[in-house]
Amino acid sequence: MAVKQKKRRWPDEEKRSICFQTTTAGVSVAQVARRYAMNANLIFKWLKDERYAPAEDLVAEPDSPVFLPVEIEAPASLDPVVATTPTGRIEIELSSGHRITAEGGFDADTLARLLKGLSS
Predict the structure, then answer these.
(1) Has this prediction a pTM greater than 0.90?
(2) Quick check: 101 and 90 in contact, CB under 8 A?
(3) Complete DSSP assignment for 69-89
(4) 86-120 pLDDT, tens per residue?
(5) Collapsed DSSP state (helix, strand, coil) of residue 92
(6) Between the N and C ends of the chain, which has fewer C-beta atoms within 10 Å?
């Protein structure tokens, strides 16, 4: 047999406080509802009521996307860029578009000669 729970009564000030918590950046209505062990739909109902909804000037606006200026310059030298990964694997991409991948044990001198031959 299910136990019938009493209907909770929320004072107006507490409703305002709960609604205000939903304006914090990164906090969802569902998170606030879980905090108070209540249904999120009830908070949405309160948010529609002007008595409890936070004032527009208090609502945090999400950061809007911003485009930043970018300048692309030619590389200062044509030396190959070597990127290593911690798994014993090395990938090298030359400015000419050649890509070399070496895994496991490899001789660095042989690899250097190969790179020199490809870059000339």
Answers:
(1) no
(2) yes
(3) -------S--PPEEEEETTTE
(4) 556 777 777 777 777 777 777 777 777 877 776 66
(5) strand
(6) N
